[in-house]
Design goal:
This protein is α+β, with helices and mostly antiparallel strands. The chain is built from ten helices and seven strands.
Length: 341
Amino acid sequence: MRTRELDEALAQQAASSEILHVIANSPGELAPVFDAILANAVRLCEAKFGGLYQSEGDGFRSVALLNLPPAFAQLFRPELILHAGPRTALARAAQTKQAVHILDLSAEREYAERDPLRVATVELGGGRTMVAVLLLRDDQLIGVIVMYRQEVRQFSERQIDLVKQFANQAVIAIENARLFNEIQKKSRQLEEASHHKSRFLAAASHDLRQPMHALGLFIAQLRDHTTSPNGSQLIDRIDDAVTGMNELFNALLDITKLDAGALMPTISEFPITDTFARIGSVFAPLAQEKGLCLQLVPSRAWVRSDPVGTHRAQSCLERGTLYLLGRRRGWLPAPRRRPAH
């Protein structure tokens, strides 16, 4: 007796592990999970045939069938929705939210009154003893597992409890598939939005580049007509500002390349003071407009990074600093040297 109980326990454990393995390896797919659950339930409970059904409105749709006699199986084609009579086992299970176990289907009132589903079960399927176990999520009916024997022989409490465990695994699989499909849908929406954003940025930067190019030509012509030192210095600042705007447009294009995975950093060693000088020429006039004094501290430090990326990151930092400081006095710090080890 103990040996048999041990064998049953090991078989149940192996079946549960198999189902969990199928769930883990079938994200978003329920058919393999339902097939595995039904096959193990029918086998371990010594049933002749069975089905797993999902709730749909006030009926049920078959999602897995096993060993049904051909004539009986025609009633449960996936495109059909099964509507059970008010006193059938399925209806009783749905009303009570409890498992329903019928020892002899042909001995009940439903068969004597010729309920269509009960008659088909007995006469086309040869079913005599049945058990129906519900799939419940937050006390809401989402499906049912039904198994039949073709002889009058009751299912044990241990077998019914085992089917309840399988039903819980089916609920977990359904919820996992729902969450997985929602995540996939959101990912597709984000990918589509990112694609539209990239197209917009590429078009905007291209359209703005044409007047910027014209502005550069005007600056060159203006330089030819300016002879005073103050005028030349002003033109240099305008030229630096235009260069800064061009770099911002390049940054927009780089965003589109990053989204497409086509932009790779170019790592090199360069003096950081060159980056500071370029930033200073652009932001010093902006700082002066805000009543700030932008001071660049000379540095001999060299950095190993992507020069373009470093310049743009530092530019964003300085722009934010100028915005936050308002009328206060600020400075752009030089990088600190790491202590030698």
